Structures are given as structure tokens and as C-alpha cells.
Amino acid sequence: MLPFLIIFIPIIGGLVVYIANMSDRVRDGFVLAVTALTGLLGLSLYSYLQDTGVVLLEYSKILHPFGVSFRIDWLSAVLVAIACSIWLLVTIYSFDYAKTMHNVKRYHTFTLITFGATLGTLLAGDLLTLFLFFELMSFASYVLVIQEGDAKALRAGFLYLIMTIGGGLALLFGILGVYTITGTVVFTAGGFLASNSTLSL
To answer: Mean pLDDT in each 10-residue stretch from start to end of the chain (201 residues)?
Structure first.
């Protein structure tokens, strides 16, 4: 449940920012609260690991044997802590900067969605989950690239979209290759080949 909260609190928070009619002050406070709460939950991964050890949580099977799963280990806990710390600092800094934008609500919405998707990639328990959150992160951050809506931003957004689609396709083909060779896409200690004794040297 903890990784689910860490990932989806900022994503849902971003949707609330977009839907709700908030004043600038209330919106800034809400965005800061969501970011800080997510950071606190991210830091709580350390105590969670001390109590339970490495955990793989499977939430659903989309298309057997593929599903959505999250893995909590010490590496992911460190990366989540770093991401949350950086995002909190960026959020605080961006309040004044965002005032110069023509659509501040959209900026904060997609900043939070990008935040949640980034955490999803860090907590992914398999390659399919990583791919799904990578795509969400990429397309949410695309909106941030074209935020100003002028010719320069749209040109940068077009180039960014090409790189994003190319990276996504490369990742997808890589996932298919890994599954074809190993028969699994789940992250395991020692790597995919180590989990398949017939392929280990």
C-alpha cells in the first residue's frame, strides 16, 4: 500500500489542482503540502524496509504473465528520497517563477503528475510497470516543455516528443527481448539471467 500512496498522491493531487477552483495562495499551499507529504512517505520507506526487508508487491495482472508490481529495496528507497528532496526544493523555488506563466494551474498539475510518474519508475517491480510510468512521466513532462505555447516552446516540444517516442519504443523492444530470452520481466536479485538457471554461466 505504501508505494501505491507515494506514487498516486501526487498524481491525484495534480488532478485536484486542475479541477478545483483555488486561489493562488491556496493552490500553492496545496501543491507544497502534497509534495511534502509524498516526501515524508518516501522517507518512511527506510523504516518499512527495516521491518519487512525487500518487498515485491503485485497489484494486478493486466495480461498474464505481465502485471503491475512495485519493488521496495534499499536502492529504490535512496532514489525515492533523492527525488522527493529535489522535487520539494524545485517546488518551493518555482512558486515565484510560475507567476510569470500564462497558465499556472496547468504547470502545477503536470509537475505533480510528473513527480508521481517519476516515483513510479523508481518503485517499479518489473519492466512493464517501469514502461508504463516512464511513458506517463514522458508525456506529462512534455506538457511542461510546451508550457509557454510560443513557437520556441512548441519546437522544443516537438523534438522532445520525438526523443520520447523513440526512447519508449526502444524500451518496449528491450522488454520484449528480455522476456523472449528469460521468460520474465520481474526485477530479481542478480538480474534477469541469474533468475533463469538455464541461461546462467
So the answer is: 88 94 91 95 86 70 67 89 94 87 89 96 89 93 88 92 92 88 74 53 45
Domain ranges of the chain: 2-140
State the Cα–Cα distance between residues 119 and 88, nearest whole angstrom.
13
The separation between CA 68 and the C-alpha centre of its own chain, rounded to angstroms, equals 14
Q: Are 113 and 8 in contact (CB under 8 A)?
A: no
Cα–Cα dist 125/121, whole Å: 9
3-state secondary structure of 4: helix
C-alpha cell at 71: 519493488
Q: What backbone phi and psi angles, to 5 degrees, belong to 48?
A: -60, -40
Residue 63 is classified by DSSP as E
